[in-house]
Design a protein that fits this description.
By secondary structure, this protein is of the alpha+beta class. It has 8 helices and 11 strands. Strands 1, 2, 3, 4, 6, 7 and 8 form a 7-stranded mixed beta sheet that branches. Strands 5-11 form a two-stranded antiparallel ribbon. A hairpin with a 2-residue loop joins strand 9 and strand 10. Helix 4 packs antiparallel against helix 6.
């Protein structure tokens, strides 16, 4: 493991303690699930950890239980960062710094080494309802992005017209308005009784050929899988889930593609993210 992975693994261990001690559910997903199955730890070139939770469990952790984490571990989501447009929560080690390019001009989005925690929602069975809900989620997701306060230096790269439109939208709508609309949209589907689950966080920003919904049976139960020096929960039907999401996930990609998907601008495991956020804020004063 490299230094970033070690810090992230420590964050995961603390998050899992809170989750398991309160009988909540979670599953390793994405590259983290592939890493657990294929490497029994991180994918060597990966630099994040992704877990998903059913919406009800996710909201308990996101709104209440995160306060029980060690003091250096902080939450970042749309509630405490106005410019954060993601549909999920990060728990990060604030004594470190890990900033990606998208957040460079938004100091309130600066984090340390993090674990991404994603909500899963119930999803309807009928295809016409599926298309309707997906379309609405995509629209709300995009509006959630537009209605957030603009990043510093936005006008230089996007022009006066786009900046003006976003400023007007920010006046009309509270910055969390459409984030709450997404939660309300999926609240009509009971997770426990749904035939499918929706990876809500992908929203309008779903890139590549990834799917957004899967049979709920994939996530009915879990098994513990070795992950570095600990264990992590993966869906009991992890093989079906990973094949649906990634195809032949056991095949290693070509060497030239064995790299992180994150464009990291600042990486410092010895200084707090608040230090760099302050430097960036002062630049624009």
């Amino acid at each position: 493991m490299n230094d970033v992975q070690k810090k992230e693994l420590n964050v995961l261990k603390e998050v899992v303690k809170i989750i398991e001690s309160n009988n909540l559910r979670y599953f390793a997903i994405g590259g983290t699930c592939i890493g657990a199955v294929r490497h029994h730890g991180f994918i060597p070139w990966d630099d994040d950890i992704d877990i998903a939770m059913p919406r009800a469990d996710y909201e308990i952790l996101r709104t209440k239980l995160y306060k029980r984490l060690p003091k250096n571990l902080k939450k970042l989501d749309g509630d405490n960062s106005q410019r954060n447009c993601f549909l999920f929560t990060k728990i990060h080690d604030s004594s470190t710094t890990l900033v990606e390019k998208y957040a460079f001009n938004s100091p309130d989005r600066y984090t340390g080494a993090f674990v991404d925690i994603m909500p899963m929602d119930g999803f309807p069975k009928k295809k016409f309802k599926q298309k309707y809900i997906q379309r609405k989620c995509n629209i709300y997701s995009y509006m959630n992005f537009l209605c957030r306060p603009i990043p510093y230096d936005y006008i230089k790269t996007n022009g006066i017209a786009k900046t003006t439109i976003r400023n007007i939208l920010h006046i009309i709508f509270k910055y969390n308005f459409f984030l709450h609309r997404i939660s309300k949209l999926f609240s009509r589907f009971n997770y426990e009784n749904s035939e499918f689950v929706y990876f809500t966080w992908r929203g309008n920003h779903n890139t590549g050929n990834y799917k957004n919904f899967f049979p709920r049976s994939y996530f009915d139960s879990y098994i513990n899988m070795p992950f570095e020096d600990t264990y992590i929960r993966v869906p009991k039907e992890y093989h079906k889930y990973l094949e649906d999401d990634f195809g032949n996930y056991m095949k290693l990609p070509p060497e030239n593609k064995r790299k992180s998907n994150h464009n990291v601008i600042i990486c410092d495991m010895n200084k707090p993210c608040a230090y760099y956020a302050k430097l960036r804020e002062e630049k624009f004063k």
